[in-house]
Amino acid sequence: MATKASHDTSNRRPANDQWGKFGGTTGIVLGAAAAGVVAGVVANLGRKAVVQAPSALAGDWFEALKAEHKAALGLFDAIQATKDEQTLRRSILLTQLKHALGKHAFTEENVIYPELRDHGDKTDADELNKEHGYVKQYLYDLEKMDNSSPEFLKKVAAFRADLEDHIRDEETRIFPQLHAKLGDKNKAVTAAANKEGFKLA
Questions:
Q1: What is the pLDDT of residues 45-54, one digit of tens each?
Q2: Rounded CA gap, 60 and 52, in Å?
Q3: φ and ψ of 24, to 5 deg
Q4: Residue 200: exposed, middle, or buried by beta-carbon count in 10 A (0-12, 13-18, 19+)?
Q5: Fewest CB within 10 angstroms: 6, 54, 69, 117, which?
């Protein structure tokens, strides 16, 4: 009986059957597509790791946020050093600034400001969160503007001045107090901040 079953060819396709060839080709195509997807995911994770690395390597959420503030101000320096005719450079730098500030705000709004509220500083948390709304407004306005106009750099300068006030308040008054209150919990907050930052890196 086993011998008969092994020689039964009634369910086999002929060697020249076009569907068999198509099925083999489909398998190759699907395999290549899957490999491409995996490679894309790995490349994206690698890119995210590189973007988040400076913050993660800071080793502490407060130091990481200070480093991100410094990086954002460096992008302002680069934008403010452009000439009116350098429209493409301005567009690229503005996109980089928008990404850097978006990632930074996401971390603060999802980890740091809730910690502020949990530790009795709802007023500052709410005010800082509100100021993030104005950051987004500045970015929106700048993207709509003709970036070859002299008004563009005036708007950038006003944006920077407001952002520096926000940063100064965080770095000199609000975050040092929170860091002191958190004590041993700073490690857990750092891990949570890195996790959130990685999502938008």
A1: 454 444 445 5
A2: 13
A3: -65, -40
A4: middle
A5: 6
